[in-house]
Every structure is written in C-alpha cells, then in structure tokens.
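Recap from last week: sequence in, structure out.
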Amino acid sequence: MRRVVAAGRNGIATRGDGNRAADPWLLDRDEPIACVRAVCRGERRLGLPEGKAGLIRARVAWARLRAARVASRLLRRPYRALGESGRVASLLPAALRPRVVESPGRGAPVRRILLGRWVIAPTRSDSGSWEVRRPFRLVIAPDLLRPDSPVASARPRPVPNGGPAAEPAPVAEEALDRLS
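Predicted structure tokens:
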C-alpha cells in the first residue's frame, strides 16, 4: 500500500507506510489512485483517516513504535533484574499470586502459569521451557519457573443441592476452557 506524500506539477510522490523515504518514482496525474477507507479485523471495522490526518496518524504510530523499541532496549536489564529478584512477586497478596496448573494435553500433561483466569506463561512444546509474556515476568517468582515447581492444588466444586463436595477438579480445566 502506498500513501500520497506530495503532489506537484511533475506528478504525485508516494511512500509505503512502512518506509521513511518517498518512492524514487512519480505517478502521473492521470493514473488512477485508490484510497483505503477502512481495515477489517475479524468483526471490527477500523476507519482510516485520509490526507494530512492520515499522515499525522501514521507518523504518531511510527513514533510510538520507535519510542517503545528505545524504551525496551533501555529498560531490558533493570526489568530482567527486577523479575529475577522476585521482589514484585513477593508484594502480591496470596490470592493474586500466579500459580502453576496442569491440564491434560495430547500425550502429556500441559503446564501453564495462571494469574487469575489468564494464562500468562504457557510452556513451549519443543523445549518445555516457559514462555512468559511481558510484563508478567515481574509478578512471577523465579522459583515458579523451575521444572520441578509444585502444581496448584485443586479447588473443590460446590454441589448445587448443598450436599458433600464433589471430587476436586483441576483449576486449569475451567480457566483454560474459557480461554480456548
């Protein structure tokens, strides 16, 4: 996709949205030019502004991306050190601490780290190591990432008629069913 960046007597200058520099060629004024009005993602339709508003929006998006990359490079070491120290994880109340759960998988049980109902660290199928998503490395205690870390205990399911509790079901089944 190309965006019009300038128009003059010699022609129309375009630039790709992912490029900083204008294209080395000019389009003739009589060549047809199409306009992207919206992008559809699933059920959502995102309208795109035209002209200067579209160019400003693209530049703001580009600047945000650059700022995020720079911040990521600058904060990488302190972030890792803070995550490995376990200080943030120790400040969380017990109810909010992440826990390792195990659910049946194809051939072997699958281990995941849950924070509430959210899966914040699935295990990689190829190596079995944890794939922790940012910023959750800060709230996961380092001992939770060891292969021999204990699996969370199951919660008993309440029985509707008030009788004795049924056999406990693994916590991961309910949470993972909602996420799948």
